[in-house]
Write a structure and sequence with these properties.
The protein is an all-alpha fold. It has 12 helices and no strands. The longest helix has 49 residues. InterPro entries: T2SS_GspF_dom (IPR018076).
């Protein structure tokens, strides 16, 4: 049986070598691309070449664009397609490594099929776990934006009410919030500021900001600003205050959900602690009964 696993290993390494030969020099820039959770950029070129030849975006458009939408929310839409392919290449690289590991385990277990079966199952489950982790990162990003947006809007209302323009108010909020520059909301606001200072109109920069965030509440914020910022004065402040109230209600709902999730996570440790206490209290009683 060992010759089967040896042949499979030769096929796996041989196919990877052939793909690497055709991909060499074509995807040099992928090793410099940084994305949270990506660790196998050096193994990506062969898989990127395979994805290109399989035309994944055309054969599986729903799956590809669903992944791309999540990746764009995290990495931005400028190079969203490239990062999506890099993420898919990461999934294939893990699957290939696990198949190799499973074949090696089967070889060392004297041809036992269970080692390869374990590697094959992990080769399917790990990519699914990566997709699930990507989804959780998107949800966490949206939650962070929703929690911070009402406070940002309150500061803008105060500054506009004091006589500042919307651009000046946003710029002032960014200057005061430099310690939050890694926050997803402030990161997108900084990108918006660079756009309007680089030649884009304020309207184009705001629309790009709303598109990158991809959140309904942010779209409502940008719509309210674009419809009313030319008026200025009390009308603009009143419109933002109405929006602020709805955003604070949304923030309360998100905070309540987080509290419920935190309490539900405490159930298992509490049950475990209860069982330990029962064992500690009951064990001496059973020992006395045996005597």
């Amino acid at each position: 049986m060992n010759w089967i696993w040896t042949g499979l290993l030769v096929c796996l390494f041989g196919s990877w070598g052939v793909l690497f030969y055709y991909a060499s020099g074509k995807y040099k820039g992928c090793s410099n691309m940084e994305m949270e959770g990506i660790r196998l950029q050096r193994l990506a070129p062969p898989m990127l070449y395979l994805l290109e030849k399989l035309q994944v975006s055309q054969r599986f458009p729903f799956f590809f664009f669903k992944i791309q939408r999540s990746v764009q929310k995290i990495c931005g839409d400028r190079r969203g397609g490239e990062y999506t392919l890099l993420f898919l290449a990461e999934m294939l690289s893990y699957s290939w490594l696990l198949m190799v590991l499973g074949s090696i385990m089967a070889l060392f277990m004297n041809g036992d099929f269970s080692g390869f079966l374990m590697g094959a199952v992990l080769a399917v489950l790990l990519p699914a776990a990566l997709i699930n982790d990507l989804h959780r990162k998107v949800v966490r990003r949206e939650r962070e934006v929703l929690l911070e947006l009402p406070e940002l809007l309150n500061r803008i209302i105060l500054l506009v009410g004091a006589g500042s323009t919307v651009q000046q108010a946003i710029r002032h909020c960014l200057e005061r919030g430099k310690e939050k520059e890694n926050h997803p909301l402030y990161r997108e606001l900084l990108q918006m500021q660079r756009e309007w200072e680089g030649g884009y109109s304020f309207q184009q920069a705001m629309e790009g900001f709303s598109k990158r965030c991809g959140i309904q509440e942010v779209s409502a914020f940008t719509t309210a600003v674009l419809l009313n910022f030319r008026r200025g004065g009390n009308d603009f402040v009143l419109a933002l205050r109405d929006l602020s109230r709805s955003l604070w209600e949304r923030r309360k709902a998100v905070s309540k959900t987080l509290g419920e999730q935190a309490s539900s996570k405490l159930v298992f440790p509490m049950v475990l602690l209860f069982l330990v206490v029962v064992i500690l209290v009951g064990a001496p009683a059973f020992m006395i009964m045996d005597l």
